[in-house]
Amino acid sequence: MAQAQTTEHVGLARVLGPAHIWALGVGIVLVGEYMGWNFSVGKGGAYAALMACWFAGILYTCVAMIDSEVTSTVAAAGGQYTQAKHIVGPLMAFNVGLYLVFAYTMLEAANAITFGFLIDTVATMSGHEAGSLDQRPFIILAIMFLAWLNYRGVLATLTFNLVITAIAFTAVIVLFLSTSGIFTDSPLRHTELMSGPAAMPYGWLGVLAAMHFGLWYYLGIEGTTQAAEEVRSPARSLPFGTLAGVMTLAIAATLTWYVCSGLMPWEYLGQAGVPLFDAARLSGSTFLMVFLGIGTMFATLASANGCINDASRAWFAMGRDRYLPGWFGAVHPRYRTPYRAIIFLVPIALIFALGAPIDQVITFSILSGLLEYTFMPLNIILFRRKWPLESINRGYEHPFHPLPAYVLLGLCGMTFFAVFLGYGTQLVAMIAFYIVVSLWFHFWRYRFVNRGAQFTMPWPKPRGY
């Protein structure tokens, strides 16, 4: 009994600093600069993709500011799930927890697919017949290795992410400097490739449609909140790491668009599997080709690694509160990780990575993320209304409230319409799924929730209640 009691009180280890938070946020997202974003070019052309990049940048800046305030105050595992639990209510919390798990697990699957595709591309360049290499063993190996790394401890996991994310980001900068004409003649042909009908082939409707995949430039930066219970100083590390991450990604996204749109026609760029690697191949430099190949591989691994970390924390937090079976709320007594949640989500990621096309997987991830972003304006408005600034201490106070909340809500509505234009069936199916599981939670699962233990913040009574 003494041993069981000791195990029950083992918690997550507070070992992370601001650099780890930056590595978690940017590491998850940077793969979006290496693949996926370019589908927005296919939706509306190169200029539409650039406008989608900047509009999505505004959306995620609002997300980062709102998240930084609430998470630096609600510093617990689960991120937005825990915020919803304390501020809105149990049903919203259950849905937000599922949004998080699906968004990150689908993104993990997309990264594994890209990793396998990259291995096949390298094999083809080495003389193998295109498509002859079986990608499945590499997909399985990547997911299993990263799950093992997460199982063994969060400090090693995110230190690994910090190193490979820094290398992948450096590769983007080096590609831009090598092709921009600063040091040598530039191979970029923007005037030729983006003139006439190629500029905006589908007009302003194409700009709207491009918002669908424009989110891929930044999708996942909000995952920094999942580490709230494992950072040494949440009030300092979370806002700094998240906001620095958004600025890093805005720079990387713009440079990526500039290089790729100057080397490839929009018709090819809009369906390319690994556009930055293709850009390096077209530059004519063997060094750039090798460096960007390594960068693409590191970006996919860093993203999948961060996704396993974030999805498992959300699943673990829901299990700890009995929103899911309490079995998932266990912490490893030695490694201090939510090991059961990590193990449980591995086969789900493998099913989608091995059995679904990448655009569908990306769309499911985007839709789950988009539902989560739509919750955030409601969350911050209720947070400020129930607990005004002077009532509780906050680690960070985001400026211009409530303007970021309304801007975020408007951009989310626009993106929902953009997704509906191309993937209406998937949008309706996913919303129907969340309605069904909400009914299941309300009529069955909520009876098992540990209601007295789920509210852990020492806050005063909400204003008006």
TrEMBL record:
TM region(s), chain numbering: 12-32, 44-66, 87-107, 135-151, 158-182, 202-219, 240-266, 286-308, 341-358, 364-383, 403-421, 427-444
Keywords linked to the UniProt accession: Membrane, Transmembrane, Transmembrane helix
InterPro entries named among the record's database cross-references: AA-permease/SLC12A_dom, APC_superfamily
Record GO biological process: transmembrane transport
Gene Ontology annotations for the cellular component aspect, listed alphabetically: membrane
Originating species: Pseudogemmobacter humi
Subcellular location: Membrane
Topology with respect to the bilayer: Multi-pass membrane protein
Domain Amino acid permease/ SLC12A: 31-444
Main subcellular location of this protein, as a coarse class: membrane
Protein name: Putative amino acid permease YhdG
